[in-house]
Amino acid sequence: MKILMITQNFYPEIGSAGNRMKTIFLMLKQKGYHVDVLTTEPTYPSRDIYSQEDFWNEQDIDVDRNQVTRLSIQNKKYSSNFFSRLFYYLEIMLKMFFYVQKDKNQYDIVFVTSPPIFVAFVGLVAKYRYNAKLLLDVRDLWPESLKGVGVFNRSYIIWMFEKMESTLYKKADHIIINSEGFIDHFKNKCDGLTKKLIFLPNAARKKETMLEKREGGSMFNVVYAGNIGLAQDVTILMQLAKKLNEHHISLNVIGYGVQKQTFTDFVRRHNLKNVKLIKPMGRQDCLNRMSRCDVGIATLNNSRVFETVLPGKIIDYLTCRLPVVASLSGYSKQLIESEKIGFVTSRQSVDEMVSYILKLYNDPELLEEMQSNCREFIEKKFLWENNINKLTNLLDQMAKG
């Protein structure tokens, strides 16, 4: 069986998308599948950071680069401006189109991940070009999430994107989702779509759970790691930093994204000595850094679309045995509360979040109990070594069918 993976985000790019596709690629290779990757040169969150050798540390990919085709992208700006980002996506789509049309290889399965939806459409073209089955990996509902960040509201273009989305769902042979919160969306889209679904969440590798234990008696630390973008509600993060400063609690921010500078300016303007601004780093280094902390922070704005998602940073926090204190609603809130792995405010209340952090700070037994729950939760439901079997079973089924 030969598989072509088409993805905008791939190793060594940081973030949930790049890590997800890298892990699936490596684990399928270990299982004996032949997988080639069509992707771009690393650009997210900026191409400059990938000049550092620290990010290129995956020997199993670096040794045999023939299986990874990286297309050069001229547009160097990953902007919050919709039209700038649109042209960036279109450039990637067109270059991938041309590559697929000229490619002489043959594949049995095309595995494409979305968003952006433009790359997913390359997967649809590739399905017919190679006469292959199409496996669509949906990491985020798009264009629902586009409406959720409130940067674009031209109804005729949103309508066009929704038609593109529906076409992809109908033409895909199977659809992978990384959040069970997406199921109702597919039920409402079209009868019979749920039969195509397989739930394959972001997860941890076993080796990633074997982190150094925190030293007893060390300072209490809160961490925010990952994207500070339009969906994450930087206002909450800024106010949280200010409140924690009043309680002399350290906040480590390993961040990037279009709102990072807004947050950085706020920290400097208010002279928040408790905030440590840490540059983005490779995944293992980031996990090691987070494992020295006590609590992980997650925020999303109050748009209804984000009630369906499970942010990748939550899985990373749990991998590091960090109870989560979050401003979320819907699926993520239910999961965190039912598994007793943290506290959630659905009212976007910074004061409530601070009270939860102080509760964990003042109650070491509760903190230890939740840390134990985090470990059990990951081992029970969110290990790639277990969950990858869902994908391999599906691939084998597709090959026979």
Automatic annotation (TrEMBL):
Recorded source organism is Bacillus paralicheniformis
UniProt-recorded name of the protein: Glycosyltransferase WbuB
Q: Which CDD domains does this chain map to?
A: GT4_WbuB-like
Q: Which domain of life is it from?
A: Bacteria
**Start and end of every Glycosyl transferase family domain?**
222-376
Residue limits of the Glycosyltransferase subfamily 4-like N-terminal domain?
27-187
> Which family does the record claim for this protein?
Belongs to the glycosyltransferase group 1 family. Glycosyltransferase 4 subfamily.
Pfam families per UniProt: Glyco_trans_4_4, Glycos_transf_1
